[in-house]
Design goal:
globular, 438 residues
């Protein structure tokens, strides 16, 4: 295996965080290289083309007012406003849609007690969201309690409904999630907030393809890093693709659970901090459907499902900008966290459940795409603030950036953390100067 000492900064991962760090360090004079094991950039923002339709397989939306929104403006990437018109629930084989989530309970095949619980839940979640806004400004106290604590005791039927809704919208469970995070995502579905989300027609990955174009010469695709070890002089040996590169600084911009595998010598305190930031798996199935004579489907945005193999169904392209009258195809996304079966049975079984939720879709599916994410979404627990200092703390000159080090989540959290780490590195590089290289 060849060895060379030729980098100031080695960045592992060409997802949102890795690309943003590289872009922010460009122009410092530092020798930088981004290592990405896949043939494409963007990480969990991956977009695929199915039957001519661009479908997102991980991250779905640009959340307004976030770092992802800022990056879109910076790159000149436009998006369409997502304008939810309905909220839906599927229980006991019955799907109901309503303009007001508060009205759905009476239509569901559940007991009167459960209907009352659901109404109270919707009212309390919606009221809190409207009071604090989509950023939950002034609601920091909600970050330190669980969503379960906020919701209070529930009967079994209502509990099953809310657990499915939360698992679909947020991946985690109400016991795990902070109330602030749960409110931001789940309640925005309930109130059909049209000022919260944007949809990029070319797909989420196009944002990071645009960022990649600015740092293309710094990125090595199809280059898997096998191991990173510390050297006696404080540098790092990065073993990858038959060679070892020595770097003064390393940035781990990969999913949190993969960090210990890449760095076997990681200190125990760092491993413990990473273990406290859950990043569970998720499976998504995108189904492209012919909607030529189904204009009513334009009103579908999100349907919570109980008793199906997935937790929910969303049509991300909803609102006046995505009217079926202007197109022949749309797509629906089904998703489930953690305990998904083998690929061989997922598509057929999930489609059967999809037809239970939306019977008119049978015979109209023109293509599907299944995606498994082993580490999908580092959702904020209610005790996340206790562990973030340890997760963010460098190990020597090794730095950590991603949604797992953020106090929010998703691509916007990863970008925020990338800017934090890039600023730290710029300061360090400025202090020590960049080594002259042959």
């Amino acid at each position: 295996m060849n060895s060379a000492r030729n980098l100031d900064v080695a960045i592992i991962g060409a997802g949102p965080a890795g690309l943003r760090v590289a872009q922010r360090l460009r122009g410092t004079g530092a020798a930088i290289r981004v290592f990405e094991k896949l043939p494409d950039v963007g990480g969990r923002t991956a977009t695929e083309t199915v039957d001519g339709v661009r479908i997102n397989t991980g991250a779905m939306f640009v959340y307004r007012g976030t770092k992802t929104d800022e990056l879109c403006r910076e790159l000149g990437i436009s998006y369409e406003p997502v304008e939810p018109r309905t909220f839906g629930m599927h229980v006991e084989g019955r799907t109901v849609l309503g303009r007001r989530a508060e009205d759905l309970a009476d239509l569901l095949p559940i007991s009167d007690a459960a209907k009352n619980d659901v109404k109270q839940l919707v009212e309390s979640l919606s009221a809190a969201y409207r009071a604090h806004g989509k950023d939950l400004a002034g609601a920091d106290h909600l970050a330190t309690i669980s969503l379960s604590d906020f919701l209070g005791p529930l009967g079994d039927e209502a509990r099953e409904l809310i657990w499915s809704a939360v698992a679909g919208a947020c991946v985690g469970t109400p016991d795990e999630l902070s109330a602030k995070f749960g409110l931001r995502y789940l309640a925005s579905f309930l109130v059909r907030d049209s000022a919260s989300r944007g949809y990029v027609p070319e797909g989420m990955q196009s944002i990071f393809d645009g960022l990649y174009e600015q740092v293309r010469d710094l990125v090595s695709l199809n280059t898997e890093v096998q191991e990173i070890t510390a050297n006696p002089d404080g540098t790092w040996s990065v073993a990858c693709s038959g060679a070892t590169v020595t770097a003064d600084h390393v940035v781990l911009a990969v999913p949190g659970p993969t960090v210990p595998d890449l760095v076997p010598g990681l200190p125990g305190w760092k491993r413990a901090a990473l273990d406290a930031i859950p990043t569970p798996s998720q499976t998504t199935l995108g189904a492209v459907v012919d909607c030529t004579d189904r204009p009513e489907w334009a009103d579908i945005f999100y349907i919570v499902t109980v008793g199906t193999r997935f937790h929910g169904v969303t049509q991300p392209r909803t609102g006046s900008h995505f009217s079926p009258g202007d197109r022949r195809r749309t797509y629906f996304e089904m998703f489930r966290g953690r305990d998904s079966p083998d690929d061989s049975v997922v598509v057929e079984d999930w489609l059967e459940d999809f037809y239970r939720v939306l019977p008119d879709a049978r015979g109209r599916v023109t293509g599907t795409f299944l995606r498994r994410w082993d580490a999908a979404f580092a959702y904020p627990r209610h005790d996340r603030d206790l562990y973030l200092p340890g997760v963010r703390e460098p190990v020597g000159t090794m730095h950590f950036a991603g949604d797992y080090t953020s106090d929010t989540a998703g691509s916007h959290g990863a970008l925020t953390e990338a800017e934090r780490v890039a600023e730290e590195l710029r300061a360090r590089l400025g202090e020590i100067g960049t080594r002259a290289r042959a």
